[in-house]
Amino acid sequence: MKKIIITGSSGFVGINLVKNLSIKHNLICPDRNDLKNIFEKKSDFDGVIHLAGKAHDLLNISNDEEYYDVNTLLTKDIFNKFIKSKSSFFIFFSSVKASADSINGILKEDNIPNPKTAYGNSKLKAENYILNEIKKINLKKINKRIYIIRPSMIHGPNNKGNLNLLFNVVKKGIPWPLGNFKNQRSFCSIDNLIYIINKLILGDKIKSGIYNVCDDEAISTNDLIKLMSSQLNKKNFILNISPRFIKLIANIGDVLNFPLNNERLKKLTESYVVSNKKIKNELNLSKMPYNARDGFIKTINSFK
Questions:
Q1: 156-170, pLDDT tens digit by residue?
Q2: Per CATH, which fold does 3-156+187-214 belong to?
Q3: Which residues neighbour 215 within 8 Å (Cβ) at sequence distance 6 or greater?
Q4: What one-character DSSP code corresponds to residue 32?
Q5: Residue 132 in contact with residue 186, Cβ under 8 Å?
Q6: Mean pLDDT to the nearest integer, 275-284
Q7: What's the confidence (pLDDT) of residue 56?
Q8: C-alpha radius of gyration, the chain, whole number
């Protein structure tokens, strides 16, 4: 049994992690007010899972400073306190968006980072700080392991977000107007993510570094619509409207705060395929334990 500090335990990922990890481990889950002094209060812990952060704002109403204060400065502070502690492992939840907001081909860990948003930049700055500090330290000598994980879009039971919005469109029988947008996206089921975290907690031989985490199979938005329709026993209504017209509506949405804006259109229609080969090779896995379709069915059924 490990004693683990988990920041950001009240969020979707945090709630699921706590539920799973508390079966085998002793968890310390400070609220935001306790984050700065939790290390002084609890000195005999084995590791830190740093989840706390400001999520990507689809409405683009957050200012850059908010992202920097939470995603960068808070991470620096917690990481520095971890380094001074006697604990052995640090898991930082970054994001694939720290590498790129859009990609051609397949995203790997060694791609040169080029985020365009304040969210992606704030995560990348936190990553770079950690990586630069690692260069100054002999991790083996001080018995520490440091992991930066970059999950693709995470989903699971009762997750609120774009998948939930998509589900409600299908449930209400509203025609899906984006059928002409052909894409493939990598997602990460909460079960696969929790599996990886469990491995990292106990993996004394797993190399420190950056790891993408996602399901093995990418899936298109149109296929998601079809899967949701089948789980609801409904006929899918996919319309093939001109992409040019849809983009015009999204441009108006940016100004008038419509449900469809360019950020949300990008989330729903762009291709974003991520490689998880590095983490699988490190763990000697031929495939992730849960396939994408089964993970989505579990998520979809929780929305009913």
A1: 998 877 788 889 989
A2: Rossmann fold (3.40.50)
A3: 152, 186, 187, 188, 189, 192, 276, 288, 290, 291, 292, 295
A4: G
A5: no
A6: 98
A7: 64
A8: 20
